[in-house]
C-alpha cells in the first residue's frame, strides 16, 4: 500500500520570517504555511509572497509543504489562490469547505490558475454542514486528498465547550472519519489549544489515533515529537504485525492459522500489512 506519513502537520504563520526559517529544522511530517488565522489583515500580501517563496524554494527537505489560503468568501481568496497555484506547493489547504460544489469550484479555479498536477487540495471541514456532507466533499474530486478537521470552528458553530475527551465533537469527528475511509481520503485531527498541557495533548493524540485519524494538526513545535510517537506504530505493534504475517504465510493451506494463540484471518493480515507499510514509510522518511 502507498502511505505518506502525516503524523504531525504544523501550522506556521507565513508573516513570521523566523518561523518559516525554523520550520526547516523541525521533525514534523508536514507544514501548513498559513495565510489565514495566523496573519493580520494588513500583513496578508507580504505573508502570501513569503509563503509562496518558501514553498517554491525546495528548502524544506522531506516535509510535505502546503499553504492555507483565506476562505472563498474573503477579499484575499482569489489573489491567494492565483499566487499559490503558481508557487506549486504539495497542497493548497482551503478553510470552510462545506459542499461538493465548493470542491468543484476550487478544483476548477486551481486548473484555471495553472496549478501543477502534483499540487493537491486539502479541504478543511469545520462546520455542522460540512460534517453532514463529509462523504460528498471527500469524494468530489481525485485532487482532494486530505480532509483537515477544524475542531475549534466546529466547537464554535455547535456552541460546544472544549472538554477533555471531546464528547461534544465526537459525532462530527466520527462522520468525517467515516467519509474519509469510505472514499479513500486521508484525514487529520484538529489542533490542541493548550500548548502548556502536555498530558492533555498526548491524551488527545491517543484518542485521535484510536479513532483512526492519520495524524494531527499542530500549533506549536513542542507538539511535534508527541504526535510523531502517538501516530506511529509501536515497536510491539510492528513485531506483532511481522509475526502475524509470517504465521499466515507459513500456514497457508492448513485451514486455520494462529499467532500467539489467536486465530488469524484475512482481515487481521490486512491490518498487519498496513501497520508494516506505515512503519516502513516512517522509517524511510526519517532515514
Separation of the first and last Cα atoms: 19 Å
Q: Helix- and strand-based class?
A: alpha/beta
Shape category: globular
CATH topology of the largest domain: TIM Barrel
Sketch the topology as an H/E string, one letter per element.
Answer: EHEHEHEHEHHEHHEHEHHEEH
Taken together, the total number of domains comes to 2
Second-tier CATH architecture of the largest domain: Alpha-Beta Barrel
Query: What's the CATH first level of the largest domain?
Result: Alpha Beta
The major beta sheet can be summarized as: 8 strands, parallel, barrel
Determine the oligomeric state from the structure: single chain
Number of strands: 10
Mean pLDDT across residues: 95
For the largest beta sheet, what order do the strands appear in spatially?
A: 1-2-3-4-5-6-7-8
Give the helix tally: 12
Segments where pLDDT lies below 50 for 5+ residues? none
Q: Give the radius of gyration.
A: 20 Å
Q: Approximately what portion of the residues adopt beta-strand conformation?
A: 15-25%
> CATH H level of the largest domain: which superfamily?
Phosphoenolpyruvate-binding domains
Q: What is the percent of helical residues?
A: 40-55%
Amino acid at each position: 500500500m502507498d502511505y505518506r506519513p502525516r503524523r504531525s502537520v504544523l501550522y506556521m504563520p507565513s508573516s513570521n520570517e523566523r518561523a518559516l526559517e525554523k520550520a526547516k529544522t523541525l521533525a514534523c511530517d508536514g507544514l501548513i504555511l498559513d495565510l489565514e488565522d495566523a496573519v493580520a489583515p494588513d500583513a496578508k500580501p507580504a505573508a502570501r509572497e513569503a509563503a509562496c517563496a518558501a514553498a517554491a524554494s525546495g528548502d524544506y527537505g522531506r516535509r510535505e509543504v502546503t499553504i492555507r489560503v483565506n476562505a472563498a468568501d474573503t477579499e484575499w481568496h482569489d489573489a491567494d489562490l492565483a499566487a499559490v497555484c503558481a508557487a506549486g506547493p504539495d497542497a493548497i489547504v482551503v478553510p470552510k469547505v462545506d459542499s461538493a460544489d465548493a470542491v468543484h469550484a476550487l478544483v476548477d479555479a486551481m486548473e484555471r490558475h495553472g496549478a501543477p498536477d502534483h499540487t493537491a487540495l486539502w479541504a478543511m471541514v469545520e462546520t455542522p454542514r460540512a460534517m453532514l456532507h463529509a462523504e460528498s466533499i471527500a469524494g468530489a474530486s481525485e485532487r482532494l486528498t486530505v480532509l483537515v478537521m477544524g475542531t475549534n470552528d466546529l466547537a464554535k458553530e455547535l456552541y460546544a465547550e472544549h472538554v477533555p475527551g471531546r464528547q461534544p465533537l465526537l459525532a462530527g469527528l466520527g462522520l468525517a472519519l467515516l467519509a474519509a475511509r469510505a472514499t479513500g481520503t486521508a484525514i487529520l485531527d484538529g489542533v490542541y489549544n493548550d500548548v502548556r498541557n502536555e498530558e492533555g495533548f498526548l491524551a488527545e493524540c491517543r484518542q485521535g489515533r484510536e479513532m483512526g485519524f492519520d495524524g494531527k494538526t499542530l500549533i506549536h513545535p513542542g507538539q511535534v515529537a508527541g504526535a510523531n510517537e502517538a501516530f506511529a506504530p509501536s515497536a510491539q505493534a510492528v513485531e506483532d504485525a511481522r509475526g502475524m504475517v509470517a504465521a499466515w504465510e507459513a500456514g497457508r493451506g492448513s485451514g486455520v492459522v494462529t499467532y500467539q494463540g489467536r486465530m488469524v484471518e484475512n482481515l487481521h493480515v490486512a491490518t498487519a500489512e498496513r501497520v508494516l507499510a506505515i512503519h516502513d514509510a516512517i522509517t524511510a522518511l526519517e532515514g
